[in-house]
Design goal:
By secondary structure, this protein is of the alpha+beta class. The chain is built from 3 helices and 7 strands; from the N terminus they run H-E-E-E-E-E-H-E-E-H. The chain starts with a helix and ends with a helix.
């Protein structure tokens, strides 16, 4: 992953949020979108942009493999975790398929049922 100095220090403090982030292959390179790395508290006036697009460093054969799978099968590249190995920040990527409309409805239905159950419990014990 190509990072600035303040981003590395912020990552080492554990101040990154992978929620809603994804990777995209563009022009033979892989970029990470939506990754939020909070500003480093001890940095000077030239702190980094928390939401900037970051380039991932991959071998050409890895990029070709990922490009083929994302284009032909309709899969998305999702970052699972960020970790350090031998002083370098690494990102673990996964190929994932988005939810279908009926799956989303099912999830919302389950969520609403659990919410109603919690309300009933709260009302009963209050």
């Amino acid at each position: 992953m190509v990072l600035l100095g303040s981003e590395v220090k912020s990552l080492r403090e554990g101040r990154a949020n992978l929620k809603d982030s994804y990777a995209k292959v563009k022009g033979g390179e892989v970029f990470l979108h939506g990754l939020h790395i909070s500003a480093y508290s001890h940095a000077s006036y030239n702190n980094h942009d928390p939401e900037r697009v970051r380039k991932l460093l991959l071998h050409a054969y890895e990029i070709k493999k990922l490009l083929g799978k994302t284009q032909e099968r309709g899969l998305a590249l999702i970052p699972l975790k960020i970790y350090f190995s031998k002083g370098k920040a690494k990102v673990e990527l996964a190929l994932a398929r988005g939810k279908k409309a009926y799956d989303k409805r099912e999830s919302l239905k389950r969520k609403e049922e659990s919410r109603e159950l919690d309300r009933a419990k709260k009302k009963h014990y209050a």
